[in-house]
Predict the 3D structure of the following.
Amino acid sequence: MKVELIGTGAIYTKYNSACTLINDNIIVDMPNGTLKQLLKKNYNIEKIRTILVTHMHGDHTGDIPFFLKHVYSFNKFKNEIVIIGPKGIENQIVKLFNAYRFEDRKEIEENMNIKYIELEQENLTIKDINSYKVQSILVSHGEEKPAYGYIINDTVGVTGDSGICDGVEEIVKNSKTTIADTSLLEGDSCHMGIDNIKYLIEKYQKPIIATHLRDTTRERLKNDNIENILVVEDGYIFEI
Ligand SMILES: [Zn+2]
Ligand SMILES: [Zn+2]
């Protein structure tokens, strides 16, 4: 699997917000600015067939309408696009379309082949989403409920935004590498911190790629250079 970190930053940084693209065709979250980033890299945008949404915050969903509008406007809407996310994700995307005042939402919906899978509270394994095995795992993001992390093909884990919780541990345990929310120096109920990530690498002895980084956290991690915690730039690609 080819994994590209489109974004590794938090809202307040110059870095793109956390966003992960796998094999050019499955993407975890679409923060504001994602579409432009992909276009700048000359990606074949219509290859993206699956969007996994971790939760409804704007720095994870903001560009979904821009993406759909773009794909539609270039007449590349023949493939089915699957959007998986928390219960209410379809309605949330309608609300975003309305907020952005894109009047062609109905036309897009009627003509594009969009399939929504809305997650219930329990963890779910979906065996064949455009030939991927996708597991959704409930995580803990303060008052923003529900929030999910994902495991793709038993290989790559993505925690989404989360404090340390059973769900995060399950993701790390069952993946080869995890891309983990490491926003803070010290974790709280909304986001993990360096302390939580250290705990996870010691317990599970697996590499973690830090994302959703605030600048202070990024600097500290770069200075400390801790084995098995990777701090990378936007656009970092690896094979697993
Ligand atoms: Zn969030
Ligand atoms: Zn976030």
Observations:
- The pocket of zinc ion (ligand 2) is lined by residues 57, 59-60, 161, 212 (CB under 6 Å).
